[in-house]
Amino acid sequence: MSMQIPLLAVENLAVSFAEQSILSGVSFTLEQGKTLAIVGESGSGKSLTALSILQLLPYPHAHHPAGHIYFQGQSLMGEPEQVLEAIRGNKISMIFQEPMTSLNPLHSIEKQIGETLLLHKGLTGKQAQLRTIELLELVGIERPEERLNAYPHELSGGQRQRVMIAMALANEPNLLIADEPTTALDATIQKQILALLKSLQKKLNMGILLITHDLNMVRQFADDVLVMSKGQQVEYQKTQDVFTAPQHEYTKTLLNAVPTGEMPALVDPKVILTAYKMNVSFPIKNNFWGKVIKSSHVVKDVSLSIHKGETLAIVGESGSGKSTLAQSLLQLNKYSGEVVYLGEIVSKLDKNKLQRVRQQLQIVFQDPYSSLSPRMSVRDIVAEGLHVFNEHNHLSEQAIDDEVKQVLLKVGLDSDAGNRYPHQFSGGQRQRIAIARALILKPKLIVLDEPTSALDRSIQKQIIELLKSLQQELGLSYLFISHDLSVVKAISHRVLVLKSGEVVEQGSTSEIFENAKHSYTQELLSSVVL
Q1: Average pLDDT in the 132-160 region?
Q2: Pairing of strands 224-229, 232-238
Q3: What would the pLDDT profile of 357-372 be if each residue is shown by its tens digit?
Q4: Are 148 and 108 in contact (CB under 8 A)?
């Protein structure tokens, strides 16, 4: 066995919060130029392990009853802050899972990347700006010069994720910890980002610790795999061995959890929602008097229809207008065109009728952490809609409590989860809370905006099966927005493909997947990591 000091060595790592043990017995090594993937369901301890390496846990409430962490032979555990600050962001960088909560909403993209370049490289002014543009180009941001003054809320989920990756790569670290680095990205950009990380890894001889629930990515990208479950390490092998000869039952369950199956044919051909010639523009420049002189045309002449009990999937790259279109259908954006729900033009409804329609049209947002109030308990979050519409429903508090408990169980959470707060849940669990909040109002149509993007595969499969069974039981319709084409194939009846705000192709799911006509659709399908 080689005596060379590994880039990273973790020995018998344990984490406790106060007296409660959360993580124990985690051991692995990572060599320079290699990739180790840590996989497991939400809440298994993947991110806790990564945060322990950089000593970013809430100490002293969090502490390590046992274990050692060595980076290039240097101990990190319990080291003084000045030692850790010299390593964080310079020798070890991290891409966090949720870019909207990791990026500063008050600072432009240029300023945020510039801070990193100034702190570790001493770059300022024109030098820093040129390097920032170069980094944004590297991670696939179009027209990066125009994005320098943009704020995080002005970017799509995928674009924010790419900015996070640009910041992490700015100082060419020895070790990159990538916590779900492509969660919010569509298939084509995933492929580009993986290729980028591989080329940088080769160029810099960089080690990568990849935390993910995407087993397809692991198979293509990782040299070794560490499988975790409930704060324990259950398997640690070469990637090929994990996929061909998994040892642990839990690993076998994960490998068998890819969403599959086809949707049953529609029973009811009734159209419940139709949109005609939808156009959405956002102002990007005003003159001195406040008149818009430059705008961004995000959705262009889009028409669609959704039948009762049908799932219509909208696919396309980040920034293609998917979420903007969906929000416009729900009257959350200004638009030109016409939305007809059950024979009525929605924009012409009076306030009371519109309120009743809103109960029947619900949405699950892409980023559950920013759409769930941190000040409200899960019980209050899920029950909020029932209280808003209770003049129509006339439910007692006890009946509302019972409804909340039932819907939490339906989405795979304990009924007592209602007593806790969003920050006490993993990313995947928060996504399930968001789904429960929409389901409790028993809507006719749910817009699902990347509802499984933060979930590991086994939970994805459960959620998809849940959505399918609810659709069958209640005749629900879904507008399903996703960049994960395996999920789209498993849940949708029809697919609409958007590129730069325009429909380039639409048809039944089987037609699109087996005989795509447009070159852009073909490119999307070829980008799926198999």
Answers
A1: 86
A2: antiparallel
A3: 888 999 988 777 778 8
A4: yes
State the number of CA atoms in the 13 A half-sphere of 509 facing the CB. Answer: 22
Neighbour tally for 3: CB within 10 Å: 4
Residue 76 to residue 9: CA distance in whole angstroms? 10
Cβ–Cβ under 8 Å, residues 175 and 206: yes
| Helix ranges, 222-308 (H) | 239-244, 249-255
User: What H or E segment, with its residue span, contains residue 191?
Assistant: helix 187-204
Q: CA angle at residue 461 from 456 to 462, to 5 degrees?
A: 100
CA dist 100 and 108 (Å) reads 13
Selection from 170, 164, 159 nearest residue 116 by Cα? 170
Surface-to-core class of residue 5, CB atoms within 10 Å of its CB (0-12 exposed, 13-18 middle, 19+ buried):
middle
The pair of three-digit structure tokens given for residue 461, joined into one six-digit string? 């499969």
198 token code pair: 């591989």
The answer to whether 320 and 482 are in contact (CB under 8 A) is no
Q: Which two tokens stand for residue 242?
A: 């994990």
319 neighbors 163 (Cβ within 8 angstroms): no
Averaged pLDDT score across all residues of the chain: 86
Task: Answer for the pair 311, 266: CB distance below 8 angstroms, yes or no.
Answer: no
Q: At what angle do helices 187-204 and 157-169 cross, to 10 degrees?
A: 0
**Whole-prediction pTM value?**
0.71
Q: Which residues make Cβ contacts (< 8 Å) with residue 508, sequence separation at least 6?
A: 493, 494, 495
Q: Who has greater pLDDT, 242 or 162? A: 242
281 token code pair: 């523009």
Contact call for residues 498 and 320 (beta carbons, < 8 A): yes
298 closest CA partner among 21, 520, 56, 498: 498
Measure the CA dihedral 262/266/270/275, to 10°. 20
135: three-class secondary structure by DSSP: helix
Tell me if 491 sits within 8 A of 478, measured CB to CB. Answer: yes
